[in-house]
């Protein structure tokens, strides 16, 4: 019994590992004990069990013994813990949580044992009864009489047809407008029109690119020449590339104006 082990621990000083070995079988075990209340203090910080966070920590002695224990109450039982007076004897269902080796006190936690809800077995149908029981179809009541048989047939067809059934349409590319499938009114695909770029525009892009690259060659070779390095060939190449770029840009502009 847990009280016997706790009595032995209160009389001996053991190592933490030895204490853990002795109390391990009793952790989480629930028992009903009588306690004599001594004092209570609000629990701060995280407890051994989060259920008892923000609750009360009671110092009690187990009745008919000299064992002092720490009894944790959850915050739902704060009013009950505050109502106790020193020397009050009470009985509680508790579970053994741990053993405080510093103060040599066992730690218990108050538990509320709820009685299981009894259910009449006759009210719960077995799985075989559920599977074997036929499904009852509810009759469909139509308000108002039908005039003739054609209305009946029409109603059946409406019921049989699925809701929101997508309608299929035949599409003819020959009858479609040109823009509907990527061809303009001149018989040219839109993709071909996008790919067409005029020659002046191409020359303008190439000229700008040459000028842009030549700037790097000129600046780099000028810095190297200033540092005493022989970078004259790179400088001449940059100047020639810039001349070609400017000439290409001018030619592309002349071609645009002439067109």
Describe this structure in words.
With 259 residues, this protein is an alpha+beta fold. Helices cover 40% and strands 17% of the residues. It has helices at residues 2-11, 16-23, 78-83, 127-132, 149-160, 190-195, 199-226, 232-258; strands at 30-42, 56-62, 68-73, 89-100, 105-110. It is rod-shaped and about 115 Å long. Residues 115-124 have low confidence and may be disordered.
Rg, Cα atoms, Å: 47 Å
The name CATH uses for the topology of the domain at 2-110 is OB fold (Dihydrolipoamide Acetyltransferase, E2P)
CATH architecture identity of the domain at 2-110: Beta Barrel
Q: Can you list the strand order of the major beta sheet?
A: 1-2-3-5-4
Backbone shape: rod-shaped
Q: Total number of β-strand segments? A: 5
Distinct helical segment count: 8
CATH superfamily of the domain at 2-110: Nucleic acid-binding proteins
Residue fraction in strands: 15-25%
CATH class of the domain at 2-110: Mainly Beta
- Low-confidence parts lasting 5 or more residues at pLDDT below 50? 115-124
The share of residues in helices is: 25-40%
- The chain-level structural class is alpha+beta
For the termini, the CA-CA separation is: 108 Å
Order of helices and strands: HHEEEHEEHHHHH
Can you summarize the main beta sheet? 5 strands, mixed, barrel
Query: Roughly what is the average pLDDT, rounded to an integer?
Result: 76
């Amino acid at each position: 019994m847990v009280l016997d082990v706790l009595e032995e621990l209160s009389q001996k000083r053991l190592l933490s590992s030895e204490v853990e070995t002795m109390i391990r079988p009793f952790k989480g075990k629930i028992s009903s004990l009588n306690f004599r209340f001594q004092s209570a203090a609000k629990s701060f910080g995280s407890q051994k069990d989060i259920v008892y966070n923000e609750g009360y920590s009671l110092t009690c002695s187990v009745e008919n013994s000299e064992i002092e224990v720490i009894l944790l109450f959850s915050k739902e039982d704060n009013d009950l813990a505050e109502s106790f007076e020193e020397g009050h004897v009470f009985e509680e269902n508790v579970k053994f949580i741990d053993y405080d080796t510093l103060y040599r006190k066992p730690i218990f936690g108050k538990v509320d044992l709820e009685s299981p809800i009894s259910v009449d077995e006759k009210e719960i149908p077995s799985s075989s009864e559920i599977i074997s029981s036929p499904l009852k179809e509810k009759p469909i009541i139509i308000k108002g009489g039908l005039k003739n048989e054609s209305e009946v047939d029409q109603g059946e067809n409406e019921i049989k047809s699925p809701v929101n059934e997508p309608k299929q349409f035949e599409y003819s590319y020959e009858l479609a407008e040109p823009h509907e499938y990527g061809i303009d009114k001149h018989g040219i695909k839109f993709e071909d029109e996008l790919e067409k770029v005029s020659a002046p525009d191409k020359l303008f892009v190439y000229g700008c690119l040459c000028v842009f690259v030549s700037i790097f060659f000129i600046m780099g070779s000028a810095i190297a020449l200033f540092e005493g390095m022989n970078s004259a060939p790179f400088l001449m190449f940059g100047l020639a590339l810039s001349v070609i770029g400017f000439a290409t840009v001018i030619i592309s502009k002349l071609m645009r104006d002439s067109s």
